[in-house]
Write a structure and sequence with these properties.
By secondary structure, this protein is an alpha/beta fold. It contains 11 helices and 9 strands. The structure holds S-adenosylmethionine (SAM). Residues 21-186 form the Ribosomal RNA adenine methylase transferase N-terminal domain.
Length: 271
């Protein structure tokens, strides 16, 4: 969502105007009775209203008081809906498991994904998101470009489901968007997280170095070849060519080796 308004679009907001996109989002992230779902940037309710029919408990967050007023009027009487006037960059996220279904503002996509995916104790289960097309390509790339993207992709599967053409919004933005699906992957607890982050941090500091050298720096083994090969990784490959599943496999193997004392996670990942 381009943030600057224009004469044609004073609020700068692009509302979803294609019901098939909304239905597809909800279908890709099934929620129902007993589930908690957050909508981040609810606008005037294009997604909120169909969400109220799923039976899930819905928290719709929107910072624009006028949109909140209209949304409350439109959903008056919806039993399991809470419409909250808040900033999604600071709104406290639930400690209990939750899903997110939302068309998030382009300008703060990284901030929103970081809040949802970076903390190692995040309670996010699944998400179906409409995001800007280029952003979706970056976060769902088979080979992540940064340690943070690799951290996200090793702990969650992130799939670009389909293109959402600009014409599906009113008014239409300048660029297309994408429907992104995020699902928690089976990982392995605190030691897994520590091993994973330590490997990623070391490797992405020297992304063009061979894996045996960069990962080898944090492995206590004199010869890291064997453990890398056992995880299906080529010790001579560049560290920044490893796929998220490869990092996860390696971290899982190393996490069970009690002789390794992994450093604590940095503050940015603990919180
Ligand atoms: C792309 S629009 C989506 C609106 C609606 N969900 C839809 O699909 O039609 C994003 C919404 O996020 C709201 N928004 C932008 N920045 C926000 C923030 N920091 N906190 C809360 N809401 C925000 C905008 O006011 C807008 O309603």
């Amino acid at each position: 969502m381009p943030s600057k308004g224009s004469r044609r679009n004073p609020s700068g907001v692009h509302f979803l105007a294609d019901r098939r996109i909304v239905d597809g989002l909800i279908e890709s992230c099934p929620v129902g009775d007993g589930d908690l779902v957050l909508e981040l940037g609810a606008g005037q309710g294009a997604i909120t209203v169909p969400l109220t029919r799923t039976g899930a408990e819905v928290i719709a967050v929107e910072r624009d008081p006028e949109f909140v007023r209209r949304l409350r009027a439109r959903t008056d009487g919806a039993a399991r809906l809470r419409v909250v006037t808040a900033d999604i960059r600071t709104f406290p996220l639930p400690a209990q498991r939750f899903s997110v279904i939302a068309s998030i503002p382009y300008a703060i996509s990284t901030t929103v994904l970081r809040r949802l995916l970076t903390p190692h104790r995040t309670a996010l289960d699944r998400a179906a998101l409409v995001v800007e097309w280029g952003f979706a390509k970056r976060v769902s790339a088979a080979v992540p470009r940064t340690a943070e993207l690799a951290w996200w992709a090793a702990r969650f599967t992130i799939r670009l489901r389909n293109r959402v053409p600009a014409r599906c919004f009113s008014p239409a933005p300048r660029v297309d968007s994408a429907h992104l699906v995020v699902e928690r992957a089976a990982t392995g607890g605190r030691r897994f997280d520590r091993a994973l982050w330590t490997l990623l941090d070391a490797s992405y500091r020297a992304p063009s170095a061979p894996l045996r050298q960069s990962a080898g720096r944090v492995l206590p083994y004199r010869n890291p070849h064997r453990v890398l090969r056992a995880a299906g990784l080529d010790p001579d490959a560049r560290a920044d060519t490893v796929r998220p599943g490869g990092w996860a496999d390696l971290a899982r193997r190393l996490a069970v080796d009690d002789t390794i004392a992994w450093p604590p996670l940095p503050k940015a990942i603990r919180e």
